[in-house]
Specification:
Chain lengths: 84, 487
């Protein structure tokens, strides 16, 4: 699946946070996160207004404690379609 | 995005799962060179049986191949080779190399000290060997005593010397060690398949039944119990159900990822799983041996369905194998070949492991498109199945099939191929098991159960009142009457 934008995803105990060299968005739920990211992208203006943007959110496994990594090394990745 | 699994080959150099494959295949290939007359694994040390008051290094320790070597030289080379390989893996995995090296060295020394002690004749020798060693009494516990002693040493450190346990923690990686051992076990199963192909096929086939039971029977029962009786949230119920029903921590993480749960949830459940797996490991082998001493394969398969985490299951299977064979020799007058009971517990577990990716993918579809429906917004990639596939299984299957292929396509090579293989699937595999036992004890701190209240109670009820009895019943249905070949 081809993405227009790739960001890393973490959870800090309270918020889901996505980071990219030029932007950051957050939300208590993934829906809130998507809304916040949509808003940030609109404000940045890198994509045309009313366009659809496919975002790849790769979960950064460094979020999970080290001792668990021997049992599993993947959490999840998301592809999200945002309408600006 | 350093910690992100982006491509299909992500993690090949940096994860324990893949490093189990690499460590496994390096020794698999080294052992295979015996086909060309080389002995690249003969330096490996192995333990021998000795009698209290008559200790000598020549009796307690020896090289598997290089007979002219002093036993301690063989042990030193064993240490150097495995230290180099594990430190290479540790560096690639970005562990703290100095702490890993120091911890690994202490673990290695403790492991071999315990292993040698466990081979004292009064503990290990079977009743038929009493005359050979001049014994008037003995416990006849076989190699199982070494495993139990290793576990006790690890648990004492993990629960009473917590500072020391913390120091060892960087190197105490039971899942890494056991997955490497399971790749070595693939060689053993390959060799066993040569001798008893139809039996191995039956075992593999019966193991499939366990997969259906774990996913389609255990999971819904535990999920319903969590939701209806314990009133847990959908997310907590799903994560806990997978952890208890399927393959422990891996399943809890996979399920939590599939339903996009906050990471704290699988972390809490994982702590429960690790501690309860240790309780199962201590209780079940002796219990099964006592209540069903004439059902070796049923007991092994039940273990595979009941004990969560690969490390604890393989460890419990190994103890069960030793205890049941020693008991059968003493009380039933039959000598079963080593490894079949262990194999039945691991084959069952590996089937369950392999399908966690598929199960998590199905759960993800249900969650994304039904439970938290956001039409057209979020998509689940099929590659998520691959990311969750346990990679050590690839090494295990490769080793198994190569040795089966040699037996089938080049039977004249079987003899020479077996020479190298026996060192890898014998002393090397057992050393990795011993390291697993010490490590699994070191990382288990029972005091972590405090404060888990409702979750711990639910886990205990589900495990001992639902999973264990049903698993035993299903294992009996599919494996009843199967007996290991005699030695």
């Amino acid at each position: 699946m081809k993405a227009d934008l790739e960001v890393s995803l973490i959870h800090d105990g309270t918020y889901w946070i996505v980071r990219h060299p030029t932007l950051e968005a957050r939300g208590r739920t993934l829906s809130e996160l998507d809304q916040d990211l949509t808003q940030r992208l609109r404000e940045k203006g890198d994509f045309p207004a009313s366009s659809q943007v496919t975002v790849f959110m790769g979960f950064d496994y460094d979020t999970i404690p080290t001792w668990i990594r021997q049992y599993a090394y993947h959490y999840f990745n998301r592809y999200v379609l945002l309408r600006l | 995005m350093a910690g992100v699994n982006r491509r299909w080959y992500s993690g090949m150099a940096t994860t324990e799962d893949w490093w189990a494959v690499w460590l496994g295949l390096i020794m698999f290939l080294a052992g295979l060179t015996s086909i060309w007359g080389w002995d690249l694994v003969g330096w490996m040390a192995k333990t021998g049986t000795w009698v209290w008051g008559d200790f000598s290094w020549d009796k307690a320790l020896k090289a598997t191949g290089y007979q002219e070597w002093h036993p301690l030289l063989s042990l030193l080379v064993t240490y150097l080779v495995f230290t180099a390989l594990t430190c290479l893996g540790a560096a690639a995995m970005k562990l703290n190399l100095k702490r890993f090296f120091a911890g690994w060295t202490l673990l290695f020394v403790m492991t071999w000290a315990v292993w040698i002690m466990g081979h004292e004749a009064h503990f290990k020798a079977s009743v038929n060997e009493f005359d050979k060693y001049g014994l008037s009494w003995g416990l006849s516990l076989g190699g199982g005593f070494s495993y139990m002693l290793a576990l006790v040493v690890g648990l004492v450190i993990g629960n009473f010397f917590k500072g020391f346990a913390e120091f060892l923690r960087e190197a105490a990686k039971p899942e890494w060690f056991i997955k490497t051992a399971i790749v070595y076990l693939g060689i053993k199963i390959g060799l066993m398949s040569i001798e008893a192909a139809s039996f191995t096929f039956e075992l593999a086939l019966a193991g499939i039944a366990a997969t259906f039971v774990a996913y389609l029977l255990f999971w819904p029962i535990v999920y319903t119990l969590s939701r209806r009786v314990f009133r847990l949230s959908r997310e907590a119920s799903a994560v806990l159900s997978s952890g208890i029903s399927i393959c422990g921590v891996s399943a809890a993480i996979a399920t939590a990822g599939a339903i996009r749960a906050r990471p704290v949830l699988p972390v809490m459940v994982s702590m429960l799983i690790v501690i309860f797996a240790m309780i199962e490991l201590i209780v079940l082998p002796g219990f099964y041996t006592a209540v069903a001493p004439n059902q070796p394969i049923v007991n092994g398969a039940a273990m595979g369905m009941t004990v969560k985490t690969d490390g604890a299951d393989a460890a419990a299977g190994a103890i069960l194998d030793e205890l049941m064979r020693a008991n059968a020799e003493a009380n039933l007058g039959v000598v079963w070949q080593e490894g079949w009971i262990l194999t039945s517990s691991i084959v069952t577990k590996i089937w369950i492991d392999m399908f966690i990716g598929v199960w998590a993918f199905l759960l993800a579809l249900v969650w994304v498109y039904k439970v938290e429906r956001q039409p057209g917004q979020s998509k689940v990639g099929v590659i998520e199945i691959w990311h969750r596939f346990p990679k050590f299984v690839l090494g295990y299957l490769l080793a198994w099939f190569v040795y089966m292929a040699i037996a089938t396509l080049g039977p004249e090579l079987s003899g020479t191929a077996t020479q190298g293989a026996e060192v890898v699937e014998g002393p090397m595999r057992k050393m990795m098991f011993m390291l697993t036992f010490v490590s699994i004890g070191v990382i288990t701190d029972f005091s972590k159960l405090k404060g888990m209240g409702k979750l711990a109670l639910l886990y205990a009820i589900a495990l001992f009142a639902i999973i264990a009895p049903i698993a035993y019943g299903v294992a009996w249905i599919f494996h009843h009457g199967m007996m290991p070949p005699t030695a």
